[in-house]
Amino acid sequence: MKTNEYEVTEKQINKFRERGYNDDLLPKTKDRRNMGMGNFFTLWMGSIHNIPNYAAVGGFLFLGLSPINVMLAVFLSAFFVSAFMALNGIVGSKYGIPFAMHLRSAYGNWGAKLPGFLRGCVAAIAWFGLQTYTGSLALLIMLGKIWPGFLHIGGSTKFFGISIPGLIAFTIFWILNVLVGIGGGGILNKFTAILSPLIYVVFGGMAIWAIWGAGGLGPILSYHINPTSHVNPIWVYFIIFNSVIAVWAAPGTSVSDFTQNAKSTRVQVIGQTLGLSLGYLIFAFSSVVILIGGSIHYHIQEWNVLNIVERWDNFPAVIICMAVFLLTTISTNATGNIIPAGYQLTALFPKKLNYKSGVLIASAISFLIMPWKLMENSDSIFIFLNAIGAVLGPVAGVMIANYFFIHKRREDLDDLYMDLNTNNKEVLYHGVNKEAYAATVIALVLSLSGQFIPAMDIISDVSWFVGFGSAFLIYLGLKKLTSRKVLETVDVDE
């Protein structure tokens, strides 16, 4: 693969620094790009095997497909995800720029603030809190197994809707997530390198136990669940594709925060593609086998993987499995939530905040929003997450269309890192890219229309694809139309 990475010079870095950009926003020089193919191969492994993803697979099983078809659909989803992540990450790996500057290249320096705030602050902080709370439930089970009396601390007393043991578990797990977030990419590289082998061992072991508990693989693959609705099987595949890629809407949009550290575009493209493909191959098999095998073994229908593990009699096995779930949640939170939030807050307030202070502020907000309250009503959570996903699909569509077809894979770093204290009206990246905003808004309305117009409810099943695809096409169309108008004006003037 021909990469043609742009090598930024120290002279440029110093000039951008003099213009008021802090080190977290500056492009990475070649010597600071320390992520190789192995790093990208393991980067997202932990993010796949998290508790909400297992719950999602439980929901997929009720859509009417056979277990083996659910496995296949989940695995095939990896190719959509890896293509999205790799393509949107090329700007970062070529120029060494973070998401905040990638966003500026598409929306303009003022226009980038709203989509950046939605991705890096609203979506990231809220999802960080929700993931932390979900992980703390695994920690609560672990602590209860180690010290049964812990679960009775405070009796029935609740603090803003959460029990005292639950609050303690949440606080401990929150602190662990914050520490990894402060460590940034360097700590994360070491963290994922240790985590990935554990995933193979633990989830492989859980799958073997589930096959044994179900009496073989045959009963699992032939397991039948009455579907909640009758939908065309081919369409169910697309529903699963959309659901899986929607999970990656946020990290995929801001993937430049990681690819800026890539040694080359080649390593991030190959590393992410192989890592996500292998990760989803393992996840597709293990998730279906564990959930169905556990349900058969305990003669129940249980789609919460934590409840299955909690039923085990083997104390060390419970502790090890819960520990790995905790680690995967931390990995997910770091890569998809707190690191992007730290960078985006830095981008919004470059003269007042750096990455670490951004992480601390985002983490504090994630605690104060009391995510356990949001979890009381599952409908409100899904409405919120679907709304954020509907916004980020169009944003990603505009970003990819802009780089590959409007800017033709070229960015001018000197203009991108403009001096904000001078008049930049003639600079390409100045102000608001009106066509990008128009495309985003129109695509957002289209992707959300299924939620409000009964005749268009089918769109809700593929909302991310509708948002991404419509924004992509509308943006290119508007750009072509406006450029033609400019040419016609020039002809008249002449």
What does this structure look like?
The protein is mostly helical. Helices cover 72% and strands 1% of the residues. It contains 22 helices and 2 strands. The chain has a two-stranded antiparallel sheet. Helix 7 crosses helix 19, helix 8 crosses helix 19 and helix 9 (164-214) crosses helix 17 (355-368). It is globular.
Summarize the structure.
The protein contains 22 helices and 2 strands. It has 494 residues and is mostly helical. Strand 1 (158-159) and strand 2 (162-163) form a beta hairpin.
Work out the number of β strands. Answer: 2
Tell me the Rg in angstroms: 23 Å
The overall pLDDT average reads 88
The separation of the N and C termini measures: 45 Å
Shape: globular
Please summarize the sheet with the most strands: 2 strands, antiparallel
What structural class do the secondary elements suggest?
mainly alpha
